[in-house]
UniProtKB/TrEMBL annotation:
Transmembrane segments: none annotated. This is Acetylglutamate kinase. Substrate binds at G74, G75, R96, N201. It comes from Candidatus Terasakiella magnetica. Gene3D superfamilies: Acetylglutamate kinase-like. One of its GO terms (cellular component) is cytoplasm. It is an enzyme of class 2 (transferase). Catalyzes the ATP-dependent phosphorylation of N-acetyl-L-glutamate. Belongs to the acetylglutamate kinase family. ArgB subfamily.
Length: 311
C-alpha cells in the first residue's frame, strides 16, 4: 500500500489527471478560507516517502487558501525511545500511563524530533511551518486526567491513576489565529501545560479535537493506520453516529487507541453554547499516498465519517 506506482503514463492517465484536477474546483471553493485540523498519527508517519507526500499535501492546502493545522502524535516513536532507555510502559484504554521518566521522554520525542521532522518536511516542500507544543503561547492548558473504570467483578467504579496524563482544560487560540491569518502552517505537539507550568502528556487525538473545536475548524481528519472504524465482522463503517459508537465501545468492538479517536470525533462535532462544533470528523488511513488530498478534493474520500449537525 505504501509503494508508489512509477510506470509510464498513458494518454488516458493524463486525461484522467486533468479531470481529477478540474473536479477539485468545487471542493477548493467550498473550503477556501476554512480551517482543517489534521491529526497525523504516529503509525501514519512511519514511511519517510509518505511523510514527504503528506508534507506536500499540507503545503498544497495552504497554497489554495485552506488553513491546515497539523496536530501530531508519536506513540510508537515514544515507545521505541522508552525501550532504548529500558523504561517499561503500559496503556490503559489507549492512554499511556505516564510517570516522571515517561513524561520526560514523551516531551522530548513529541516536541523535539517528531515535531521538527514534520516542520522540516513541510518547509522542504516550500511551505512555512512553525512547530509548537501546547506550552507555546499557553496553546493547550491542561489538568491531570481523572478517569474511572468499572471493575467487572465487583461492579465498583475505580479511580485510575495515569500519572502525568493530561486533558485539555482550555485552548488559547490566540497564537493560532495569528498564524492562520498569515502564510504560517502551525504544527502542534500534544504536550499540555498545567496552571503552574507542569507538563502533561495528552493523547494526540484528544489534543487535535480540542484545538479543532476551539478554532471552529470545518473538518477534523484523523490519519491513522487502518482504513477506518471496523464493525464486528471487520467491515469498514462508512458513517456512524454517537449512539452506535458508544454501543461499539461498550461491547468491545471498538478498543485500544480507537477509543480516544472516537471520543474525540464525537466531542468535536458536538455543538455547545461556546462552539458551533466541527462539521465533520473523519477517521482514515494515513498510509494511503495523498490521503489528505483525496479526502478534501475528491469524491473518493474514504474512512469513517462522524457528522455534526451542520455537515
Ligand atoms: N473497531 C475498530 N476499528 C478499527 N480499529 C480499531 C478498532 N478497535 C481497535 N482498533 C485499533 O485502533 C488502532 C488505531 O489506534 P492507534 O494505534 O492509537 O492509532 P494512532 O497511532 O494513529 O493514533 C487500529 O490500528 C486498531 O488496531
Ligand atoms: C496519554 C497518551 O497516551 N499520550 C500519547 C501521546 C502520543 C500519541 O497520542 O500518539 P499517536 O497519535 O501516534 O497514538 C502517548 O504517550 O503515546
Amino acid at each position: 500500500m505504501t509503494t508508489l506506482d512509477k510506470s509510464p503514463m498513458t494518454e488516458e492517465d493524463y486525461l484522467s489527471q486533468a479531470v481529477t484536477l478540474s473536479e477539485a474546483l468545487p471542493y477548493m471553493q467550498r473550503y477556501a478560507g476554512e480551517t482543517v485540523v489534521i491529526k497525523y498519527g504516529g503509525h501514519a508517519m512511519g514511511d519517510p516517502e509518505l511523510a514527504k507526500l503528506f508534507a506536500k499535501d499540507i503545503v498544497l492546502l495552504k497554497q489554495v487558501g485552506i488553513n491546515p493545522v497539523v496536530v501530531h502524535g508519536g506513540g510508537p516513536q515514544i515507545g521505541n525511545m522508552l525501550k532504548r532507555l529500558e523504561v517499561e510502559t503500559n496503556f490503559i484504554d489507549g492512554l499511556r500511563v505516564t510517570d516522571q521518566a515517561t513524561i520526560d521522554v514523551a516531551e522530548m520525542v513529541l516536541s523535539g524530533s517528531i515535531n521538527k521532522s514534520i516542520v522540516a518536511n513541510i518547509n522542504a516542500a516550500g511551505g512555512f511551518a512553525v512547530g509548537l507544543s501546547g506550552k507555546d503561547g499557553s496553546l493547550i492548558r491542561a489538568k491531570k486526567l481523572h478517569r474511572t473504570k468499572k471493575d467487572p467483578e465487583s461492579n465498583i467504579e475505580k479511580v485510575l491513576d495515569l500519572g502525568f496524563v493530561g486533558e485539555p482544560e482550555f485552548v488559547t487560540p490566540h497564537i493560532l489565529d495569528t498564524f492562520l491569518e498569515s502564510d504560517i502552517i502551525p504544527v502542534v505537539a500534544p504536550i499540555g501545560m498545567g496552571a503552574n507550568g507542569e507538563t502533561f502528556n495528552i493523547n494526540a487525538d484528544t489534543a487535535a479535537g480540542a484545538i479543532a473545536a476551539a478554532i471552529d475548524a470545518k473538518r477534523l481528519l484523523m490519519l491513522t493506520d487502518i482504513a477506518g472504524v471496523m464493525d464486528g465482522d471487520k467491515n469498514l463503517i462508512q458513517e456512524m453516529n454517537a449512539v452506535e459508537a458508544r454501543a461499539m465501545i461498550a461491547d468491545g468492538t471498538i478498543s485500544g487507541g480507537m477509543i480516544p479517536k472516537i471520543e474525540t470525533c464525537l466531542g468535536a462535532v458536538e455543538q455547545t453554547e461556546e462552539t458551533p462544533g466541527v462539521n465533520a470528523a473523519v477517521i482514515m488511513d494515513g498510509r494511503v499516498p495523498h490521503a489528505v488530498l483525496l479526502e478534501i478534493f475528491t469524491e473518493h474520500g474514504a474512512g469513517t465519517m462522524i457528522r455534526g449537525l451542520n455537515a
